[in-house]
UniProtKB/TrEMBL annotation:
Binding site for substrate: 179-182, 202-205
InterPro entries: Ntn_hydrolases_N, Peptidase_T2, TAT_signal_bac_arc
Annotated positions for site Cleavage: 150-151
Source organism (scientific name): Christiangramia crocea
GO MF entries: hydrolase activity, acting on carbon-nitrogen (but not peptide) bonds, in linear amides
Gene Ontology, cellular component aspect: cytoplasm
Active-site residues, record numbering mapped to chain: 151 (nucleophile)
SUPFAM superfamilies named among the record's database cross-references: N-terminal nucleophile aminohydrolases (Ntn hydrolases) (SSF56235)
Source species taxonomy: Bacteria, Pseudomonadati, Bacteroidota, Flavobacteriia, Flavobacteriales
Protein name, entry field: Isoaspartyl peptidase/L-asparaginase
Family annotation (PANTHER family): L-ASPARAGINASE, N(4)-(BETA-N-ACETYLGLUCOSAMINYL)-L-ASPARAGINASE
Length: 290
């Protein structure tokens, strides 16, 4: 029996899950739905961690990371991409139009332009103002407040029971120039296997990359764990290994082929959005710390 279509995303991004969910219930593919779904947040100027309006690095550059995975197990990714509002769509083009998986920086931008994407200034007045404020003290430390973590990772199941996933971000605010996080790394910010399920991550990318967290979650599900158990074990890897785990947040959302969802994080406050059978919800995640 196939599950009904489902769209699930990190944080309370219900506009994104509604977009993806309504597309899925009208017969769209999981791949089209995840792309269009996360594009909502790439264009949302109020979201300062994704796409247009994303916080710049400490030198004032807005640099974007994104990736996408298809039911066939294909993947595309862009890292350190500047001046393009929809990095997820460029990642999809990398997957579909090139022999490669990942393009970076200048080359990614050049490819995007060849593909017809238009350059745009993504540094808004507000994010420039906030950056100039930050420059006064230049204090760089992980910020665990939920307001500062708005990366969108999304997983969808379509009417055929096929799954796709996407992840897109401007990364940690005021990161070093050149820094790339977990979000565009296949297996870290996103992993999907259409036979098993998928996982997406948000939070401190450096910690997620070191455990290749999303890959880990999917492999644990493959071994028979529920999405919830798999997310818990992946978070505990970091908690047990990193003495500084209290200073940062990491969170995973996972969904298996049956449409079962799980989620876990270090610090309380993480939620995930879901669209299922016409109903849109925001769901609190369980956490290691309260
Ligand atoms: C990163 N994981 O670049 C991203 C940041 C994030 O919500 O999730 N922000 O490390």
């Amino acid at each position: 029996l196939k599950p009904s279509p489902v769209a699930v995303a990190t944080w309370n991004f219900q506009n994104a899950t509604k977009m993806a969910g309504t597309m899925l219930y009208s017969g769209a593919s999981a791949l089209d739905a995840v792309e269009k779904g996360v594009m909502i947040e790439e264009s949302n100027l109020k979201n300062t961690t994704v796409g247009n309006g994303g916080a710049p690095d400490r030198d004032g550059n807005v640099t974007l990371d994104a990736c996408i995975m298809s039911p066939e197990g294909n993947a595309g990714s862009v890292v350190y991409l500047k001046e393009i509002e929809h990095p997820v769509s460029v990642a999809r083009k990398v997957m579909e139009e090139t022999p490669h998986v990942m393009l970076a920086g200048e080359g990614a931008l050049q490819f995007a332009i060849q593909q017809g994407f238009k350059k745009k200034n993504l540094l808004t007045e507000e994010s420039e103002k906030a950056w100039k404020e930050w420059l006064k003290d230049k204090e760089y430390k992980p910020i665990i407040n939920i307001e500062n973590h708005d990366t969108i990772g999304m997983l969808c199941i379509d009417e055929n029971g096929d799954m796709a996933g996407a992840c897109t971000t401007s990364g940690l605010g005021y990161k070093m120039n050149g820094r790339v996080g977990d979000s565009p790394i296949i297996g870290a910010g996103l992993y999907l296997d259409n036979e098993v399920g998928g996982a997406v991550a948000t939070g401190m990318g450096e910690a997620i990359m070191k455990s290749l967290g999303s890959f880990l979650v999917v492999e644990l599900m493959r071994q028979g764990k529920s999405p919830q158990e798999a997310c818990e074990e992946a978070v505990m890897r970091t908690v047990n290994k990193d003495p500084n785990y209290k200073d940062f947040q990491i969170a995973f959302v996972a969904m298996n082929k049956a449409g079962e969802i799980g989620s876990y994080c270090i610090h309380k406050g993480f939620t995930y959005a879901k669209y299922y059978e016409g109903e849109s919800t925001n769901n609190p995640s369980s956490s290691y710390l309260n």
